[in-house]
Amino acid sequence: MTAVVPAREAVRPRKRRYTTDQVSGGSVALRMVAGFVVFVIFIIPYLIMFFGSLKTKAEILSVEPTYFPTEFRLDNYLNMWSAPETPLVQNLISTIVISVFATLLVLFIALPAAYYTARFRFPGRMAFLFLVIVTQMLQPAVLTSGLFRQFSVLGIGDTWLAMILINAAFNLAFATWIMHSFFAGVPREVDEAAQIDGAGRLTVLFRINLPLVWPGIVTAIVFTFVACWNEFAASLVILSTAGNQPLSVALTKFVGQYSTSWHYVFGVSIVAIIPVILLFMLIEKRLVSGLTAGSVK
Amino acid sequence: MTQTINEAPTQAGAATGRPRPGVTGGPRAAVGTRFKDLLAALPWIGPAILLIFGVVLFPAVVMFYNSTRDISISGLDKGSVGFENYQTLFEFAPLGGIMVRTIVWVVAVVSITVILSLALAQLLNKAFPGRQLVRMAVIVPWAASVVMTTLVVYYGLEGFIGIINKFLVDINLIDEPYGWTKNAVSAFNWAIAIAVFVSLPFTTYTILAGLQTVPGDALEAAKMDGAGPARTYFNIVLPQLRAAISVAVLINIINVFNSLPILSVMTGSIPGYDADTIMTMIFKYIQTEHKIDVASALSVIAFLIVIVIVAVYVKLVKPMKEV
Amino acid sequence: MKKSMRMGGIVATAALATLSLASCGFGGGEAGGSSGSGTTLNLLVPTYSDTTQGLWEGVIKDFEAENEDITVKLETQSWDNLNDVVTTKIQANKAPDIMNGGPFAGFASDELLYPIEEVVSADTLADFQESFVDASSVDGVQYGAPLIASARALFVNEDLLAQAGVAAVPTTWDELLEAAKKISALGGGVAGYGMPLGSEEAQGESAIWFYGSGGGFGDADAITIDTPENLTAAQFMQKMVTEGATQPDAGATNRSPLIEVFVQGKIGMVIGLPPTVGQIEDGNPELNYSINPIPTQDGSAFTLGVADHLMAFKNDDKKKEAITKFLDFFYSPDQYVNWVTTEKFLPTTKSGADALSGEEDLKPFLSALPDAKFYPSTNAKWAATDAAFKSLVGQLAQGKDAKAVLTEIQAKVDAG
Fold first, then answer.
1. For chains B and C, what is the number of CB pairs under 8 angstroms?
2. Looking at residue A261, which CATH number applies to its domain?
3. b or e along B120-149 (b: 16 or more beta carbons within 10 Å of the residue's beta carbon)?
């Protein structure tokens, strides 16, 4: 049930693509219109968020809502860092530390597992792959109580380490699947040829396979990173010190008993989105070919 | 656990633990070597197993365990009650509706997502000025957390202060602001819309990736046969996308089934249980009623349901090829 | 077929593993600790406003300066998440040492709390106002140290009232209905009466009406929802909705956003509480409003009083002394008055009340307090009652039969 069918792409010479069709000017115009509509629909919620983050607290709660801020309060973006509700700078650092290390951990653990399960058959292989997928099916909201207990007994409750481990464990599945399917796509002959040349298994993995499955690794990194970046349920109970908490938890501090500082909620959201968007921009090309890989027949 | 799996290597040789150089086929591995194969695999999969067992096993067991306990509202374990929590659930009249709604939720979100993604991928695969920008825009909901996206829509739909409501009034679609998030049906529908919205980036990109693999010669052949664009799409492109779609659907099923924030934000203030799914009901048991025991029982049921759904799906669709 | 059987096998194995593990049990985990020579107190508090975190940090800084051997570790959570967090901690045997929260009957009946007389000095104990002591006690033992109080009152937008031609602030339900209808008739998105029956605070609005007809929620011994008095109230609430006296979708409107709308002058009358005064100061100081007694069926005086508490968890008797020091320090007028006034609530101590007696804004509330009714929050079924109201009472505004709603709530309460 595991292997997504391989991408031959990486090793095959490039063929003519479906994209290259000749079209009339009219249909290009049509595409531009459609593209524009899509663009607007996808961007609108975040525009509301962005403009909201520039309003005053009074304006954002106004019963006569405004599309655009009457005065652009760029200082919201300065003031929120010293908002009394939560130490945002530390929250941002926490988010970065937890996400980066959890992603690295996932990579180091999932990569060999994905490689081996794609390349070799051994008893329990299916059980292993099933075990991995099961972790995705558990509902985090209910698991938190067990997680909290476990990490306080281990003495690392309220630490980044705990959240790095948790994030890594719950994102292992996706990363393993994706990379597995990519490795499965590399023709076995490539390995075998290398082994005849006397290369060890690690050499085969790092020298021969990795360059071929790079897009798959990028995809796995993106998935894991985004999931860790936005994780909420476990952080809420595991991390009790305000400064240790990630942005996702910090956001809830702006929700008071009687009123919510929406302008800060939106401001923090925008700040949280930007690094991820930048990451995407850097790897967008690889992402397409990365995601591709899994599905080529 | 491993003993329960008796898997016959179908492609021996390279498929067994030690690929023998140059040998691509061969007799079935002897039983004795199977243990050795497992040992050989351990260094590679061991860390993953360790992490999963180290982190996930205990909380999962606690979930099963709690579902058979009587836990007070302050969280104190008062002893075993056997299957009483499950009985409480089955006697809970709205449960039937909640189950049906859960199915509607998953089926609606996943199928609409796939259909829209197919169209979207088709568009993004064609060349036109500004395509890069549109591709970036499509990615944004993925980068933003689901909670944030949901909150902003919720805020926009608010009856008094919502911008989306104001916009709908301004373009004369409705006469006065409507309480979208305050009525079960409209709130549920908006929740579906948001869930589709946040699932689109991943699904679209997966299909887009699949489109790269449609062989150009097959398309040309179809053209020469005089096939129209529709027939070409359904006969050649779509079959080629099968693998991409089936994997995307599987991942979406699991994610959508387990998705809590969208529904709990959009339908949270609605009285009664007319907009609840299994996940929001679990949430209500924890958050409002402080019944961790019943919540755990419902989680166990949810877990079993999703395992069955996934198993059936995998069986029918075979989204992943065996090695 | 073969594959699904394999999966079945895995599920069965997993289930077996669970059962065998479960039978061993895994209680335990050590109580959270005093480190080294000093003592660490864990303090868990909810966020009342954007100043809460800073206020507590100030208290702690001053306290630690005076008590160098005690460290106080502060954790703030939003009200939404507070309960989740504390139950998780209790399950893991990691209860906070001091917590600020609402209902505490559940903790008390699980014997998790110190009786308050064990963790405050006699002076502090004697300083609590008598009216709050009863509401903080279960079976005659006081478990909660009342922290803040609030009372409800009718906030009226005087300009809207005048525009609608209503001569006097209503004191009875019938007057309220008439006045609200007239204000609603002004149009332009204005609503006469704001009725928040959404999940956030549905039990509060219900109590306003139920107690207003001589009914109520019951007492420490029995929760009584399905009563004739309450039915009268529920039917009148429905009448308010069907005759257009309220804002749209009353059944799913939460309180906080609704009060925000009142602050901006789009609602004629709404039940508010002391912090509402501050919200008006911040959000719309020009609002021409007045604070009045809550209208009741026959016009008799009534307010709903609510007190939040500090409670001390029995984790480690060695910490008792430190807890006592902290609570005494906190309730000293220097600290306490500043805390309460900044959060804009009512004081629960006599010394606090004396210090604040000159505050004009608080007068309407302070004068209403003697008639205050409290939730039966020391009843073990209160948590279930609260939950049932939050998730069910809004159906009144959606046209469900009033009697059926009450029966449903009562059944939910009785089932625990």
1. 136
2. 1.10.3720.10
3. bbbbbbbebeebeebbbbbbbbbbbbbbbb
List chain B residues with CB under 8 Å of C15.
64
* Average predicted confidence (pLDDT) for chain A: 80
B311 chain-C contacts, CB cut-off 8 A: 4, 7
Query: CA nearest B162 in C: which residue?
Result: C257
- C111 lies in which domain range? 39-150+306-365
Enclosing H/E stretch for C73: strand C70-77
Spelled out in words, what is the top-level CATH class assigned to the domain B95-317? mainly alpha
- The answer to whether B292 contacts C91, with C-beta atoms less than 8 Å apart, is yes
Note whether residue C345 is domain-resident.
Answer: yes
3-class secondary structure, C307: strand
Cβ pair B65:C21 closer than 8 A: yes
Name the range with the highest mean pLDDT among A252-261, B297-306, C349-358: B297-306
Count of domains for chain A: 1
Residue among A62, A84, A144 whose CB faces C50 most closely: A84
Beta bridge partners, C346, equal C149
pLDDT band at B5 (very low <50, low <70, confident <90, very high): very low
Which residues of chain A from 236 to 255 reach within 8 Å of chain C, CB to CB?
Answer: 236-237, 240-242, 252-255
Cβ B140 vs Cβ B227: under 8 Å: no
Q: What is the pLDDT of residues C116-144, one digit of tens each?
A: 999 999 999 999 988 888 888 888 899 99
| Residue A249 belongs to domain spanning | 86-293
- Residue-wise pLDDT for A5-57, tens only, equals 444 333 444 444 444 445 566 788 899 999 999 999 999 999 999 999 998 88
Q: Report residue B205's pLDDT band, with 50, 70 and 90 as the boundaries.
A: confident
Domain containing residue C45: CATH number = 3.40.190.10
Q: Which residue in chain C is spatially nearest to B184 when comparing CA positions? A: C252
**How many domains are there within chain C?**
2
Predicted complex ipTM:
0.79
Which residues of B are less than 8 Å from A184 in CB distance?
Answer: 321, 323
Cα–Cα distance, C276 to C255 (Å, whole number): 11
Q: Is residue A8 part of a domain?
A: no
Contacts of A149 (CB under 8 A, 6+ apart): B58, B62, C29, C91, C92
In tens, the pLDDT along C238-289 reads 999 999 999 988 988 888 889 989 999 999 999 998 889 988 988 889 999 9
pLDDT band at A288 (very low <50, low <70, confident <90, very high): low
Contact A264, A77 (CB under 8 A): no
